[in-house]
Structure formats: structure tokens, C-alpha cells
Amino acid sequence: MEQYKQEFIEFMVDSQVLKFGEFTLKSGRKSPFFMNAGAYVTGAQLRRLGEYYARAIHDHYGLDFDVLFGPAYKGIPLSVATTMAISELYGKEIRYCSNRKEVKDHGDTGILLGSKLKDGDRVVMIEDVTTSGKSIEETYPIIKAQADVEITGLMVSLNRMERGLAGTGSALEEIRDKYGFEAHAIVSMEDVVEYLYQKPYKGKIYIDDTLKAAIDAYYAQYGVQ
User: Fold this and answer.
1) pTM of the prediction?
2) Cβ(29)–Cβ(222) under 8 Å?
3) Is residue 80 within a helix (H) or strand (E), and if so which, with residue range?
4) Rounded mean pLDDT of 176-188?
5) Longest pairwise C-alpha distance within the chain
6) Annotated active-site residue in 101, 106, 202, 204
7) Which residues contact 142 (CB under 8 A, 6 or more apart)?
8) What is the pLDDT of residues 118-133, one digit of tens each?
9) What is the pLDDT of residues 66-116, one digit of tens each?
10) Cα–Cα distance between 225 and 219 in angstroms, integer?
């Protein structure tokens, strides 16, 4: 496994962003693991997170795009931190854009905050994690309603490697097939299990036999081959 993936897994654990136990997800599924980007709360954490995203976006999509779009709410700090990292690491100025949950009717009006979208903009979307693809289903029409833009890809931090809404493939594969753009992650749950199973990190075993069995059972129900 690449060194940066190992470092990112450790970073998620250290930041208490990746947790293990029993969690009910937005999709309604009960999962033995949970990833919450809202737990990145310090300046140092956000700087490092933005750098990981920036490198992954650079590797998968290059920098020939105009706007990084982060859906409200968790996508807002992700888009801000990553555009800053892209500027610092690569000297490329990318605009950030996010949506509001409610349309603002005074001052800076509209449904968007950050940069406005313009016809012809090339847009990369950024999220923390996509479990079923439901969030993209909600966000995609919002983006397309603002301007005639080209969405070139989606970047998430963790590929949960489970079936999407249609149940025919992974959420990231279904996004590609339905919307016509690529979807990638910094790491997958397969990477996480490979790195942490029965291997102590800072003196603690995070994935023991019991948790591994729960993860295997979860993927037997919701996973993809």
C-alpha cells in the first residue's frame, strides 16, 4: 500500500474521524464503522486534509478545472481547505463553491456561497464519503440548475465499497454510470482493513477478529464484489 494511504488512515484514526462500533447511516444502513469529516476541527487538521484531497484530485483529475464544489454542510470546509492546498502545492487558483440548504433572499442572494457558477465551468465535486450515492442525487440537480457546467469528477476521502441506490454496483460506480463522470477516493475500506486488522497502531488494535467479522457480515449484505 502506498505510504500516503497509510498516513491518511492513521490521520483519520488520530483525528477520531474514522470510528468503529455500531452506527446508523443516512442511508438507513447499520454499519460497524463510521467516517465523519465533521470531526476535523483544528487548523492543522484541515490543512493536512486539504493537502490529501489536493494530491488525490491532482493524481486523478489533474488541475484543468475551474471550480471545486462542496455540498452543504460538510463539503463547505472541504472545498475551502482543498482550494487553499491546491494553491499552495501547485500554484493553481481554483474557485470554491458550495450550496446553501435554504435560498438566501437578501444581501448575497441565491442558493450558492463562494464563487458563482458560470456557463462552461469545469467542476470537480468534493465530499467526505459516499455510501449510497443519495447525496449526489440531491446535489447534482442543484449544480446543473445554476449554469451549463461540466462536472469532471467526484473526490471523496473514503470509498465504503458498498452498493449504491440502484443496488447494481458500488456507489462510486453507479455515480459514474448515471452521471457520466468519474468518482474516486483517497482510500478504500479495503485499504483500511488491510492496514489495521490485527496490527497495533499506537498500542491499540482497532480491528480485531470480532470487528472484522462484523465488517465481513456488513459487506456480505451491502458490499460489492
Assistant:
1) 0.88
2) yes
3) helix 75-90
4) 92
5) 56
6) 106
7) 99, 111
8) 999 999 999 988 766 6
9) 999 999 888 999 999 999 999 999 999 999 999 887 665 654 557 888 899
10) 9
**Pair type for strands 95-104 and 110-114:** antiparallel
Selecting among 26, 104, 118, 199, the annotated active-site residue is 104
For the question of residue 60 being annotated catalytic, the response is: no
Say how far apart CA 105 and CA 197 lie, in whole Å: 51
Q: Give pLDDT, residue 3.
A: 86
DSSP 116: P
Whether 104 is a known active-site residue: answer yes
Closest CA to 49 of 32, 60, 36, 61: 36
Q: What does each C-alpha distance from 225 to 113, 170, 197, 207, 222 come to in angstroms?
A: 39, 9, 20, 21, 10
Tell me how far the alpha carbon of residue 127 is from its chain's centroid.
3
Q: How many residues does the chain have?
A: 225
